[in-house]
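Why does residue order matter? Because the sequence determines the fold. Keep that principle in mind as you read this record.
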Amino acid sequence: MTSKETTAVAADPNKITKSDLIKASVNTGALGMEFSWTYYKQMNIAFCLMVAKLLKKIYHDRPEDYAEALHRHSAFFNITVQFAPFVGGIAVAMEEKVARGEMDPESVNDVKAALMGPLSGIGDSIFLSTLRVIAAAVGISLCQAGNAFGPIAFLLIYNIPGFWLRIWGIQKGYELGVGFLEQAQRSGLMQKVMTAVGIVGVMVVGAMCKGMFWASMPIPIGTGESAQTLQDILDGVMPGMLGLISFWIYYYFLSKKVNPMVLILFTMIIGIIGAFFGVLA
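Structure:
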């Protein structure tokens, strides 16, 4: 802790410091985003655990508000794990405004939800599709050459940028949350940013409907060489149509407050029955 931080803590022991943010970026919650992953709300438990101590500082003498904040951050959350601390920093800065009565509590989760899609699109491209592949290529080539440093090289190449982004990200997120959000709200820029982020988020969701749906309908239609499957016909109309239809079905039921676990079980049953009768593959 720097001398400036020590002075600030002495003046206000409940002030969030750089040291607090760094600790949060590498605590059990931040590093365990996928260890506590659930189909219901995905990374919500880990996110809540990541920011819990920071929230406790903000609401140190208001246990009911602290409990409400914890409940607020137990909402659905999913993102490329290296970007989670950045969103956490923004959320904590917004919580300080909520604590002072300067912001609607619901806006915290609105911002979190708006950032999930775009940041995941960027993060998955960088870390999963690029950096991980490069790290694996270097590690494998070293192993093939008989160099025992191969696995270590893979871990270093993949994790050093990730940990740097975690530590830098939570500080930058907190800094942006304190200054940028306030200025953006006054100037009207926030609405434009949220609109732009929402558009990118919808694009990412659309791509996921196509790329993350792994079922097809191999029902044959016609005979001989001209025979086609129902899936070929659907793809001819619009590739990914089956995934898009499924997305809207689930969106409809979720909007009607149907429990996600019921939908998951229903999906498993439909998949088994469909595969048994040859309707789905």
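The first strand starts at residue 220 and ends at 221.
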